[in-house]
Structures
1.
Amino acid sequence: MLIIGSHVGYKKDKQMLGSLEEALSYGANTFMFYTGAPQNTIRYEIDKDKVIEAKEKMLEYNIDINNVIVHAPYIINLANDDPSKYDFSISFLKGEVERCHELGIKYMVLHPGSHVGLGIDKGIENIIHALNIVLEGDFDVTILLETMAGKGSEVGSNFQELKRIIDGIERKELIGVCMDTCHLNDSGYDISDFDSILDEFDKIIGLKYLHCIHINDSKNVRGARKDRHENIGYGTIGFENLLKVLYHEKLSGIPKILETPYILDKPPYKEEIEMIKSRKFNEKLKENVD
Ligand code: FE
Ligand code: FE
Ligand code: ZN
């Protein structure tokens, strides 16, 4: 069965229950959220009653909480060991893992980090050291390293770099990977030959480490190292190529999450999920946008 959802909001009052309700309004059977604004560190205490309510509603709608994803905020940078920032990133990420645990969420997506001129080797070393500290706790939350576009000094824009990080992690049962189709395209992978990408991933990292896929088209050509998401079928990857990823037999149990841009200030996810389910491109989606 296709497990499809999108990025959704998370607000102080309704918390994960609100995120779930937004996802249901799109016809989704999973979703991804930040436990607060991704660009700041303000986090509210998790309301246990709301967690129970959300879990009950998930049962009612046949949504498996193991398919629901949290995304770590992008202010965390584990690759930079500047003391003023490194300790903050580590402790904030630890807090995020604890919040996932309280919410009953199993998978958290993380951008590995940017080495900011320290070099790839030092960046990877810093990420490994930090993750081993974060994963020390008694929590059953798996961190998924996202495949990155390679913008600036981003670490993790190819499978080899992710493999080097994973090799350094002590608790391998708590580490995995999230592929992002826009990022793969922008870092140079050819999504039109997705079978080869999966084969390469399997050889280098191992398919058992893959637990989430971000489905986005790209505004830029392959290898541009830009990271600008486009609505599905409107970018350089194309609708048919994304369908092949979405319906790939080897990935049937893996949640697929849309992070495509809003259209005229409105979320496009209901329409995009319809397109995906019907496997028919909707050329009217961006009709009023020039
Ligand atoms: Fe991401
Ligand atoms: Fe992503
Ligand atoms: Zn991105």
2.
Amino acid sequence: MIDTVALITGAARGIGLATATLFHAEGRRVVLLDRDADALSAAVANLPGALGVTCDVSIQQDVAQALAEIEQTCGRLDILVNNAGVADFGPLADTDFARWRRVMDTNLDGVFLMSQACLPLLAKRGGAIVNIASISGLRASTLRIAYGTSKAAVIHLTKQQAAELGEVGIRVNCVCPGPVNTKLALAVHSPAIRAAYHDAIPLNRYGTEREIAEAICFLASDKASYVTGQILAADGGFESTGVGLPALRT
Ligand code: NAD
């Protein structure tokens, strides 16, 4: 495993950093990519041997430059985790086109651009892509007109990629996290939303970054060598329970 290289986008903090840390502990070489240069250097400093690449996944030239740097420095790529994402909750009436585009730029275009740019390196030895969507892509709700739609698109993009890339030996799967206490969630989960999540989730709690990272690392690993095109909700049971009315609890 020591010579395999895993690239994680949005890895300066949160779920991306937890995933990079887990891959690193498994003995893989990790490449952390993020647009927040300061947070990125702090994260890389704690992972000996890790490479940090500053890049905005929604900007095509940035992505091309990042891949050139990774190819030159590492010479190979085995795993891509498309984790970089932004959340912006609002109703249809208040979501102007610029707001819609900001969400789509990173959450959808970023996954497309990064996957396409990594393809030549991943196809050399066969590899794995794990896309990070959300329970908001599986279950519609209020306030997620842009975010939920972007994540539903990532789920379908995963299936498109799996259908096409199997024959070049690349597996593509998707993890849909439930709520996790990261900076992203803290910005959009009001106290009322937090309380409602606790009530509606069978496990009665938020997940941890580590719990989501474990699901990602499994799908990226050889343990999942016959798994492709799958959507795994790591969500405390939220997706499986429909409306999950607290009043129906015993
Ligand atoms: P976070 O905000 O803590 O971390 C996201 C990281 O992505 C940040 O370091 C940020 O700088 C980086 N980033 C954002 N846009 C970028 C871009 N265009 N280019 C490069 N880097 C960029 O968020 P998180 O909670 O760890 O979220 C990680 C992923 O998990 C996201 O795709 C998010 O939608 C998804 N998710 C999170 C939750 C949750 O409750 N936290 C739930 C479901 C899905």
